[in-house]
TrEMBL record:
It is an enzyme of class 2 (transferase). Residues 82-127 form the PAS domain. The keyword Transferase applies. The keyword Transferase applies. It catalyses: ATP + protein L-histidine = ADP + protein N-phospho-L-histidine. Its EC number is 2.7.13.3. It comes from Rhodanobacter soli. Residues 197-404 form the Histidine kinase domain. This is histidine kinase. Keywords: Kinase, Transferase. Pfam families: HATPase_c.
C-alpha cells in the first residue's frame, strides 16, 4: 500500500507540473497567434489603429505588423489629404471634368460638369457616355473647339480627353471648357475699355465746343455788337473747327486700327525694305547698318507702315536730345529681328505704351504703337520696347518668324 501511494504521489508530482507547463506554453504560443490573427484581420478590414504587445515568441512578427500598420495609416492619411485637395481643386475649377470607366460609365464628375449636364450627382454616376450624349465628344479628336448643346448650356466648348488606367482597366478623362463664356467676358471688357476711351475723348471735344458755342452766342446777342465781335467769332469758330478736326482724326485712327485687313504675305528682302523706310524720314538722317540679305514672308504695305511708326517715334525722341537713329536687321534663332535705336530721353514710366489711345505725347492719338503690335501679331510675330543698355535712349524691336526651309 505505501508503494502504491508513493506511485500516485510521483504521478501527481509529474503530471501536475507537466500540465502547468503545457498550459503556460499554450498561452505563450497560442495567445500571440490570436493577437497576430487579430492584427492581420484588422489590416485586412482597413483598420490600421490596432497594435499588438511586442514580446514573446512572436515578438518580431508583431513588431513588423505594427510597423506595417503605422506605414499604412500614414499612407491612408496622405491619400485622404490628397483626395480632399483634389476634390477641392475639382470643385473650384470652371472646367467640367468627367471620368469614365472601361465600360464608358461615368464614375466621377465635378460641380462644373454637374451644372453642365443639369442633373443630380446620384442620377448621373453610372450612366454611359452614350446616355449622356457625350460619346461623340470622346470619339472626336482631342484639343478642338466645337459647338455643342448640353442640358445645362449651349455654345462653343474646348474639348480635351485622354486615356486613364484604374485597377488595371482602361478609362477616359474628359475635360470641357466653355470658350464662349471666356470670349464673351473678354468682349465685354474690350467694349468697356473702348467706350471709356471714346467717351472721354468725345466728351472733352463736345464740352469745349459747347462752351465756345455758348460764348459766341453771347457775343453775337449783345446790343450793340462789340467792335471786335468778328475777331472773337472768327477765333471761336477756328477753335471749334480745330477741335472737330482733332476728333475726326481720332475716330479715323480708331477705324484704321479696327479695320486692319489680314496680311497679304509675299517674300520680302529686309536689306531692301529697311533702307527704303529710312529714306522716307526727312527730319533726321537715319543711319542704316547694312546687313546680309534676309528674306521674310510679310505684307509689304503693313510691314512698311509698322516700321514707319516705330521710326517716327524714334526720330521724335532723338530730336529732343539732338541724337541719332539707327536701323538694322538680323537673325535671332528662328526669327528675323528689326531694331530701331534712338538716343532720346528713354522710355516713359508706363506699362500702357501698347494700349490703344494711350499716349505720352501732347496731341498724340495713341494709335501708332497699337497698330504696330497688331500688324506684328497678324504676322505671327511681336514687338517690344526697352531701354538701351550701353547709352541713354530706347530700342524698338519688331520680329517675324522665319519660314522653315
Amino acid at each position: 500500500m505505501p508503494e502504491r501511494a508513493l506511485c500516485w504521489l510521483l504521478a501527481v508530482a509529474v503530471v501536475v507540473p507537466t500540465a502547468l507547463i503545457a498550459r503556460w506554453q499554450h498561452r505563450r504560443v497560442v495567445y500571440p497567434l490570436y493577437t497576430l490573427a487579430g492584427l492581420l484581420e484588422a489590416l485586412r478590414e482597413g483598420d490600421y489603429s490596432m497594435r499588438g504587445v511586442q514580446g514573446g515568441v512572436l515578438g518580431d512578427a508583431i513588431y513588423d505588423i505594427n510597423a506595417l500598420a503605422d506605414r499604412l495609416q500614414k499612407e491612408r492619411l496622405q491619400f485622404e489629404d490628397s483626395a480632399r485637395l483634389l476634390g477641392k481643386t475639382l470643385a473650384a475649377l470652371d472646367s467640367a471634368v468627367l471620368v469614365f470607366d472601361h465600360d464608358a460609365r461615368l464614375r466621377l464628375l465635378n460641380p462644373a460638369a454637374q451644372r453642365l449636364l443639369a442633373g443630380e450627382r446620384h442620377a448621373l454616376i453610372g450612366r454611359r457616355a452614350g446616355e449622356l450624349e457625350l460619346d461623340a465628344l470622346l470619339a472626336a479628336p482631342s484639343a478642338q473647339v466645337v459647338r455643342h448643346t448640353f442640358p445645362g448650356r449651349s455654345g462653343r466648348f474646348d474639348i480635351r480627353h485622354a486615356p486613364l488606367r484604374n485597377e488595371g482597366r482602361s478609362g477616359r478623362l474628359l475635360v470641357i471648357n466653355d470658350v464662349g463664356r471666356v470670349l464673351r467676358e473678354e468682349e465685354r471688357q474690350a467694349w468697356q475699355r473702348l467706350l471709356r476711351v471714346l467717351g472721354h475723348e468725345v466728351n472733352n471735344s463736345l464740352a469745349s465746343i459747347h462752351s465756345l458755342a455758348g460764348t459766341l452766342a453771347t457775343v453775337i446777342a449783345r446790343e450793340p455788337l462789340a467792335e471786335d465781335w468778328r475777331e472773337d467769332a472768327r477765333g471761336g469758330l477756328q477753335v471749334i473747327g480745330n477741335r472737330a478736326e482733332s476728333l475726326a482724326r481720332f475716330l479715323a485712327g480708331y477705324s484704321r486700327l479696327a479695320a486692319l485687313p489680314p496680311p497679304q504675305k509675299r517674300e520680302l528682302d529686309l536689306a531692301t525694305l529697311v533702307p527704303a523706310v529710312a529714306r522716307l524720314e526727312q527730319r533726321l538722317a537715319v543711319q542704316v547698318e547694312a546687313g546680309a540679305p534676309l528674306q521674310v514672308q510679310a505684307d509689304p504695305d503693313q510691314l512698311e507702315q509698322a516700321l514707319i511708326n516705330l521710326l517716327r517715334n524714334a526720330v521724335e525722341a532723338s530730336l529732343a536730345t539732338a541724337g541719332q537713329v539707327i536701323m538694322r536687321w538680323r537673325i535671332e534663332g528662328e526669327r528675323a529681328v528689326i531694331d530701331v535705336l534712338d538716343d532720346g530721353p528713354g522710355l516713359p514710366g508706363s506699362d500702357n505704351l501698347f494700349v490703344p489711345f494711350f499716349t505720352t505725347k501732347p496731341g498724340g492719338s495713341g494709335i501708332g504703337l497699337a497698330l504696330v503690335r497688331q500688324i506684328a501679331e497678324a504676322h505671327e510675330g511681336g514687338v517690344s520696347l526697352s531701354a538701351r543698355g550701353d547709352t541713354p535712349g530706347a530700342v524698338a524691336q519688331l520680329w517675324l518668324p522665319l519660314e522653315s526651309p
